[in-house]
Write a structure and sequence with these properties.
It is a single chain. Helices cover about 35% and strands about 30% of the residues. The chain is of the alpha+beta class. The protein folds into two domains: about 150 residues, Immunoglobulin-like (Sandwich), CATH 2.60.40; about 110 residues, Four Helix Bundle (Hemerythrin (Met), subunit A) (Up-down Bundle). Helix 4 runs parallel beside helix 7 and helix 5 crosses helix 6. The longest helix has 22 residues. It is elongated. The relative contact order is 0.13.
């Protein structure tokens, strides 16, 4: 495939490499694209290629790719053939959120990643202004993907994904799921006290909806006297009860000076992770009907 002006080839692109750069709050996936430019002996009939962008799709296999984002160069450029064949290499940068990077690393599942790079731009020449486009398939091996993650310092930031289910409005778990979604929005908006408050309400909602008070009491008693005999579910209940206890100051002020408790981002992340996992587990136990 190639980028053409009419029937004449302006450039044959290929992916030379994929690399990573870390920014503030974002990651950049960089695609080094090499353009092989053939010779055009007749300079009076030349054309230029401009305004090239990349539409990137990715997946664990070629048959199951999904849109990832748009990649651009840091500055504009043009490609123009002349009497001599030549090569031109350009760097295209794609901004990714931590959540997108987490999703990419999850779907590669030890087998690397497949990318389809759709190049599109326009050519200007004797035939006027024409659209130009081309597709390139590129496989990033597991070892290359490990290198990219290292370049992104990905190991320095832990991103944990919790697939929060959707439930019908008439489900007894609907209030808890809704509160967790609202808490997640509060986290992104920097309202960390609100995150803790909503998580406490979500855990209280689960506590009431699941009618597991007796099971919680048994778990607490076994922790005091026979902790080694506790089942996994009893240990989960104990963790959730500890989370409810942790969030209690969010609903009260200090008895001595009347000041409320303040929560940091780390505090909010801690309790949101526990509360989201607890709600997901409760939805599974309640067999809440899912929205398709």
């Amino acid at each position: 495939m190639s980028l053409n002006h009419g029937s004449r080839i302006i450039a044959n692109p290929k992916v030379q490499y994929v690399s990573g750069k870390k920014g503030i709050g974002i990651y950049q996936l960089c695609f080094g694209i090499q353009f092989g430019i053939p010779s055009w002996p007749n300079e009076s009939n030349t054309a230029i290629l401009r305004n090239v962008r990349l539409r990137i799709s990715a997946g664990a296999k070629h048959s199951d790719l999904h849109f990832l984002g748009m990649a651009e160069t840091a500055s504009s450029f043009t490609i123009q053939p002349n009497q001599h064949s030549q090569q031109q290499e350009l760097l295209f940068e794609l901004n990714l959120t931590p959540q997108q990077l987490f999703a990419l690393d999850e779907i590669q599942n030890g087998a690397g990643l497949y990318f389809t790079v759709h190049l599109y731009g326009e050519t200007v020449g004797m035939s006027g202004t024409l659209p130009a486009h081309d597709d390139i398939n590129h496989h990033v091996t597991l070892s290359d993907w490990a290198r990219v993650l290292h370049e992104l310092n990905y190991a320095d930031i832990l991103v944990i994904g919790v697939a929060l289910p959707r439930v019908m409005q008439d489900s007894k778990m609907y209030p808890a799921v809704t509160l967790i979604r609202q808490a997640n929005e509060d986290l992104h908006s920097g309202r960390y006290d609100a995150v803790v408050t909503r998580c406490r309400l979500a855990l209280d909602s689960v506590y009431a909806a699941m009618t597991e008070k007796e099971s919680v009491n048994v778990a607490i008693e076994k922790f005091k006297t026979k902790k080694r005999t506790m089942t996994k579910f009893e240990r989960e209940l104990l963790i959730v009860e500890a989370a409810r206890h942790y969030t209690q100051p969010a609903h009260h002020v200090d008895d001595d000076d009347g000041n409320p408790e303040w929560y940091s981002r780390s505090d909010a992340l801690l309790i949101l992770g526990v509360a989201a996992a607890a709600v997901c587990s409760a939805v599974s136990r309640a067999a809440a009907p899912a929205v398709i």
